[in-house]
């Protein structure tokens, strides 16, 4: 019951199993799988769902056989037929992929008529699951890991595209003790789109470039500290592009400093560049799926 069920799938597809045994095995397998997943055991439910589907199909066929003499006279259900349909339908509800399961059934049987029935059952299972639950069980498992997906799309590249790969290493820096007049001479209006302030070599905040020019000439500023913004908001080089975009949205910043955990500034990343790289990568991944070239 705690194994994947590779051999049992093939055995119960063709074996003549009494109804009581099929029900007992189905209940035991469902219980064992639930306990395994709930306890945090590693592994998925693909082969387990195949076995549970086979057993559910056999239970359904046995039930039809009992009702056939009174309700459906002349019906002689094929247990293997319903076992294969049950296997495909339950697997689609658990892991998704209706076409995958349909082609698997065609490969196993070579029967086109049976494959059409499997296709109908798999499509129905997929629609019912999405209608009642919203997504497959496998997708829900990804949600528990913090992945915001609704379908079977490759999102691994989101973790591979990090801030360290996107940031600019040339950072316009200003020490917060720099006199305002010196800061204006070093960075006149239009010289840069962002300024990173440091204190004792560590990140202190961002200074909007326009703030230097907008500050009144006669306003006494002992330091640039009053001009600082986003003093507690920064990116780490190991952050993913998704984390960076989320931080841009929360902070409403056009650019953020990239620092090491100790506060040392190592780069700067603008929201415009991050969005462009994200869009370019999305387009490239889409072209790989569709086969179309995106110029």
TrEMBL record:
Q: Where is the signal peptide?
A: none
Q: State whether keyword Signal applies.
A: no
Q: Which UniProt keywords apply?
A: Chloride, Chloride channel, Ion channel, Ion transport, Membrane, Transmembrane, Transmembrane helix, Transport
Q: Which GO terms describe its molecular function?
A: chloride channel activity
Q: Name one Pfam family in it.
A: Voltage_CLC
Places the protein is found: Membrane
Domain CBS, first and last residues per copy: 237-277
Cross-referenced InterPro entries: CBS_dom, CBS_dom_sf, Cl-channel_core, ClC, ClC-type_chloride_channel
Please, which domain of life does this record's source organism belong to? Bacteria
Q: Name one GO cellular component term.
A: chloride channel complex
The record describes its membrane topology as: Multi-pass membrane protein
State which residue ranges cross the membrane.
Answer: 12-32, 44-61, 81-106
- Quick check: keyword Transmembrane in the entry? yes
The protein, known as: CBS domain-containing protein
